[in-house]
Amino acid sequence: MALPPPDPQFVLRGAGAAVHTLHFSCRGESDVPVLFSGSENGFINVWNLKTHRVDTTLDGHGRKSVYCVETMGGKDRLLSQGRDQRVCLWDLAEGRTAVMDSVCTENVGFCRCSLLKVAQGRWLMAMAAKALEEVQVLELPSKTSVCTLKPEVGAKLGMPMCLKLWQLNCSSQPLLLAGYEDGSVILWNVTMGKALSQLVCHQEPVMSLDFDSEKAKGISGSSEKVLSIWSLNEQQNLQVCKTHRLVNTGISDITIRPDKKILATAGWDHRIRIFGWKKMKPLAVLNYHTATVHCVSFSDHKTPGERLLAAGSGDHRISIWSIYAHT
Amino acid sequence: VCFIPGGLDCSISFISHVLGKVCVQGRQKEILSALVPRLTDLTKSDCIWQRMCWRLVECVPERWMEPVLLGFVQRAPGADALSRLLGNLVVKNKKAQFVVTQKMLLLQYSHTTAVLQNLLGYLSLDSLRRPFLIKVLQELLETWGSSSAVKHSPPEQQQYISKAILICLSHLKEPEMESCRQELLTSMMEGVKCHLDSNLPQIRRLGMIVAESISSKINTDGPVLKFQYEEDDETRELKSFLMQTSPSSAVPGLPDDDRNEEADAALPLVLKSDKNPQTAAPLMPDEESDAELDSDDDLVPYDMSEDKELKAKAPLYIRDCIDVLTGCEDVDKWEATVKALESLIRKNPAATREVSVELAKILLHLEEKTCIEGFVELRQRAQVAVLTTDPIPVAKYLTSQFYSLNYSLRQRVDVLDVLILAAQELSSPKSYGKTKQFGAPKPCIQLLPGSDSSKDWRRIVDERIKSKTRRFATGQSQVEIASSPNEFNSVAGHFFFPLIQHFDRPLTTFDLLGEDHFVLGRLVHTLAILMYLAINTVAVTAMGKVLLEFVWALRFHTDSYVRQGLLSCVSSLLHSVPTEHLLEDMTEELLETLSWLGVVVEKDPDGDCRRLALQNLLLMENLKKKLKTVPS
């Protein structure tokens, strides 16, 4: 007899607007575990996970929606991307709330940027560029352009919808997976600026994707009812492994837990779904929110038992769940 | 009959004379059924027999040529046999040319398809005769494309001509096609216009099929014309004519029908760039080998039975529905409202009455916001529900809108359909939702949106004839239906009179007597149904009088659909108005109608009109008989 799905461990209220992006930072030993959230009203809230209250609010995007937040090595350096066409780099050490630097993206889309640490103090950031189908990769903090990834003329891919930079290990070349508006996913070689493989996974735009570099397997979700699981073979070619059919259409976000055991999807039908990553076994459907769930994120706690899952929704709440934490 | 070979021309011409005389006197069947098979066998391989046969036919005097030729064409087993039998008769003999190329194709239309195939195949088999084929095709197309022919010739003739055109097209070769490509194109454009303008769906379909065939022949590469129509046996048969190749003839380089078929099929897809995306080719993972290493087993799934499809909730009150339909941005809610509207209206009659006209207005202007299945039907059912709940004000609104400016044809026809369905509901006993009534004395009028009513009319008039001549036995052979007051009684006049009022007053966007004859046809049929349903109502006599005047005013309308409607009006009238009133109030009009019906039966080109007129005359006869049996 299966247990009913668990309730959220706690719910963070007070965001005041739809929550579009979440990012945990719980690794510091002496620090309080913290959750960053970006909302539609342009604020980035720093939530204290012990008191469940907002510690700080950052206002740097001119009240335009913030749709991506990422930390760059610890919770003192934050990167945020907003609809004011800017990527801001924040310095939050010692209680400061200052924008150190910003990059003007000139892009009016919704594509979240992707960060990858390539060396100590050096990151690569991939973001949608000004021209319609292009993706630009910058090096931070120097803000120099590494390359611009242009699809072929006449490819008709549409906007890039979601990006993921990754590398197999520290010494190999960085690669980029990009999902586009026409439903295809392209694997790019960033150093050479060339596309290695293209796969049509969906009939509708690819809303979100995530990739497991160890197993060379990835998953993408779209505005239709199907999740597509694909893999990368030795020749760097993408192939579809299987598809999973959902009950309702629309997925806004997918994320695989760092230990690669489970993954979570954020759905337009207000539900969060948990699957086992190995075989895509459906594990749970978490029903709490009353509007579209925009983002899901797993925490990076060192102790497995403390691991959490956060989901931000259009009903202005962030639900925090402790699910399969002990496996 | 046995011929001795060797210079017997004279005796052959004597035989031709005999043959001709026999044929013209009507004994064609007997003599040719013996002669033709024998000749066919004899001429199969023997050239001398062939020449003799040609001489035989050539010598038939002109005045008797036609029946002989007709007999041969009808009896020959195939186009090549006909070719052997007749040779180049059409080239040499003027009368034969006339019969074959003009009379049999353009002036007569009773011949079977096999005869057509023989004839046109015969013309195509020899290079001397091919010019006739082209000429024939041009003349056929001219007839096909002339708008007066489309309007005034019977449907059977139009079908015959279309078949002939398709068969001709199948025989045409590439070089000939090239030379007359331009003409084909022009005639096709003109012809398709007149055909689509017609009210009869059969004519429209014929036009569409022929146009598609012509277009596929002249545009062998590139996009071809493709219409949307229902496929049935008739259309498939017609299309099959185009695809045949001439049998066993030695003519090389026949038009490649397979190539045409591929060009007909889906337009070539634009291939992607050479980066060639691999389309999803699912590979089944090897599940067995993973079973051992599966550490997912310790992840126990939770109960997921609650995970069902999301459905938007429909509002529960009529006024909420109005709000959603007029201003709501939420498409899920809009969809749910449209689906739930009819039942809400029927469950809350009092609430609906308060807002009935407003609701009717919203529904008349409601357009499809999202793609719902059966949107048109849902909207129509909601409109009918509103109309039956509050008949008088809503009928007043709808009939006034019918004659207003700036409505589309679809909306005006919608108004008519809704009035009919509501009238039917109101006049039938209280069994809402069940339009099929068991053993009903009145036949059911099933009106689906956009369907062609002319088939229904046939059925209805047939039933009427049946009902008029039926003698009721005293035994109860039918199920007793619960009786209830006829709600249509009080509102029949409100439905009927406003519709008939302004038909001759043209507006800037709507001219019933001019271009919009399609709507006029539908209006006339609507009036016929309303008349029919008004039996046993108080207003029926007044309605009848007005209807007869209306029919009289329009009786010479050129559109056959309108005339069929007018005749249905007369049938309904004779059915619904009580006999005594008919004779008292409308004697003169009835007599005039009687004489008009007589004219229609004899002279109207449309077969359906003639049949309807005949049925009306029968009804009137029955009336007279009934009067005679009743002691006055």
Automatic annotation (TrEMBL), chain A:
The lineage of its organism: Eukaryota, Metazoa, Chordata, Craniata, Vertebrata. The keyword Hydrolase does not apply. It comes from Ceyx cyanopectus. WD repeats lie at residues 199-240, 286-327. PROSITE patterns: WD_REPEATS_2 (PS50082), WD_REPEATS_REGION (PS50294). The gene is Gnb1l. This is GNB1L protein. Keywords: Repeat, WD repeat. It comes from the Eukaryota. The keyword Repeat applies. It holds the Pfam family WD40.
From TrEMBL, chain B:
GO terms for cellular component: cytosol; membrane; nucleus. InterPro entries: ARM-type_fold, TEL2_C_sf, TEL2_Regulation, TELO2_ARM, Telomere_length_regulation_dom. Residues 129-224 form the TELO2 ARM repeat domain. Residues 315-423 form the Telomere length regulation protein conserved domain. Its main location: cytoplasm. SUPFAM superfamilies: ARM repeat. GO terms for molecular function: Hsp90 protein binding; telomeric DNA binding. Residues 285-294 have a biased composition (Acidic residues). Residues 271-294 are annotated as: Disordered. Belongs to the TEL2 family. This is Telomere length regulation protein TEL2 homolog. It comes from Ceyx cyanopectus.
